[in-house]
TrEMBL record:
Keyword entries, A-Z: Hydrolase
Chloroplast recorded as keyword: no
Molecular function terms from GO: UDPsulfoquinovose synthase activity
Species this protein is from: Rhizobium wenxiniae
Annotated pathway: Bacterial outer membrane biogenesis; LPS O-antigen biosynthesis
InterPro entries, per database record: Epimerase_deHydtase, NAD(P)-bd_dom_sf
Lineage per the UniProt record: Bacteria, Pseudomonadati, Pseudomonadota, Alphaproteobacteria, Hyphomicrobiales
Residues annotated as transmembrane: none
Protein name as annotated: UDP-sulfoquinovose synthase
SUPFAM superfamilies cross-referenced by the UniProt entry: NAD(P)-binding Rossmann-fold domains
Record's keyword annotation contains Oxidoreductase: no
Domain of life: Bacteria
Boundaries of every NAD-dependent epimerase/dehydratase domain copy: 3-291
Length: 406
């Protein structure tokens, strides 16, 4: 297949591009390199030393003989460039990662909220609009999030996208219908993924676009089989308070002797998936497109659920790290259960990589290797969901006063 990977320079976009290229597909990355600019804005850098995208693709070619093409295009702003590129290349499939993906970053200020909404919604809409305008039968695979559902299971497992409901008609009969599972976003970022869902439903119905939406959990790990091929193919690894996600953060914190930053009671249960499984799921989704004229295909892209405090306690036991119980900068349920259906990927052959497979200590080792690159002052999560919460997030786990965030 000829595949365009929108956002192919990012944390999952890069290993996905390598994986698909390795599997024999013709891969084109379209990216505006915004993650690199945001690193500069925040004054942080990936734990792992990352080369430029041009250097990464050069090394890939030198090591494997395969080419990955790179195009500097901003999907949200350069509609005509995007349309011209699609008209010229007519890809069989598109993997769409080209969105701002951090909840804390999206909640930092009014400017960050505007940026996240404008960037994410425009990028998705421009893509859909261009596919219709060019009359392309391209399969669009989008990276959504488990967070569109919220994290409450009301005693029933979260289904894969659609919920069967019975509705009583005016004549007293009950008709059954399948509706999109009610969305319940917990941040501006998560809200943009809910808006994406509506755009997809409309374009699948009105223009018969073939769309798959992958509702992914929190991705952990850093290496995949392909990023291991050469040191310069290494994936990025975010540890800072905005872009670092919980499990990877705890592992790097353990490696540098920083107390594990549990928000609140740590009773939040979330869905997880290893980055290697994430790229496999994307390949499976590409190989199983929905029919033209059908509804949006939705998969829950996760393999296990864990409670934040259980993760902290497990890593503390494994490494001897201390745990810091911090005021929660977010507005979220302090405790929740989470049961999620994920049969569709399992039936299509996914063999889940679980936490118990020795990979946790491998990540601690990666973190130790690059520990000299860590700026400890960037570890605390200071982006607060509301002004009253901001007033409570004052000290980091090492007891230092943080700059005011309210
Ligand atoms: N948390 C801590 N300590 C930390 C960091 C996080 O206790 O140092 C807690 C948070 O309060 C939250 C949970 O861990 O309850 C998860 O936070 P996270 O930063 O790991 O994940 P989240 O903000 O939900 O976002 C990440 C990705 C996003 C993806 C989402 C999937 O950044 O792109 O969509 O995970 S999901 O969480 O299933 O919605």
């Amino acid at each position: 297949m000829k595949i365009a990977v929108m956002g192919g320079d990012g944390f999952i976009g890069w290993p996905t591009s390598l994986h698909l290229s390795h599997a024999g597909h013709e891969v084109h990355i379209l990216d505006n390199l915004s993650r690199r600019w945001i690193d500069t804005e925040l004054g942080v850098q990936s734990l792992t030393p990352m080369d430029s995208i041009q250097e990464r693709t050069r090394i890939w070619h030198a090591e494997t003989g395969r080419r990955i093409h790179f195009n500097l295009i901003d999907l949200a702003k350069d509609y005509e460039l995007l349309k011209n590129w699609l008209a010229e290349h007519r890809p069989d499939a598109i993997v769409h990662f080209a969105e701002q993906r951090a909840a804390p970053y999206s909640m930092k200020s009014d400017r960050h909220k505007n940026y996240t909404v404008n960037n994410n919604v425009n990028a998705t809409h421009n893509l859909l609009n261009a596919l219709v305008e060019l009359d392309l039968d391209t399969h669009l695979v989008h990276l959504g999030t488990m967070g569109v559902y919220g994290y409450s299971t009301v005693g029933a497992a979260i289904p894969e996208g659609y919920l069967p409901v019975g509705i009583e008609t005016m004549s007293g009969e009950t008709v059954s219908q399948e509706i999109l599972y009610p969305s319940n976003p917990g941040s501006i970022y998560h809200m943009t993924k809910c808006l994406d869902q509506l755009l997809f439903a409309f374009y699948a119905k009105n223009d018969r676009l073939r769309i798959t939406d992958l509702h992914q959990g929190i991705v952990w790990g850093t290496h995949t089989a392909e990023t291991r091929i050469h040191e310069q193919l290494i994936n990025r690894f975010d540890y800072d308070g905005d872009y670092g996600t919980v499990l990877n953060r705890f592992l790097i914190q353990a490696a540098i002797g920083y107390p594990l930053t549990v928000h609140g009671t740590g009773g939040q249960t979330r869905a997880f998936i290893h980055v290697q499984d994430s790229v496999r799921c994307i390949e499976i989704a590409l190989n199983n497109p929905p029919a033209r004229g059908g509804r949006v295909e939705i998969f829950n892209q996760m393999t296990e659920t864990h409670r934040v405090r259980d993760l902290a306690e497990m890593i503390s036991k494994m490494t001897g790290a201390k745990i810091a119980w911090l005021p929660n900068p977010r507005k979220e349920a302090p405790e929740n259960d989470l049961v999620v259906k994920n049969e569709k990927f399992i039936e299509l052959g996914l063999k889940p990589t679980t936490l118990g497979e020795g990979l946790l200590s491998e990540i601690v080792d990666v973190a130790k290797k690059y520990a000299y690159r860590v700026d400890r002052s960037r570890v605390p999560a200071v982006s607060a969901w509301t002004k009253d919460i901001a007033a409570t997030v004052e000290r980091d786990p090492e007891g230092k006063r943080l700059k005011s965030v309210s």
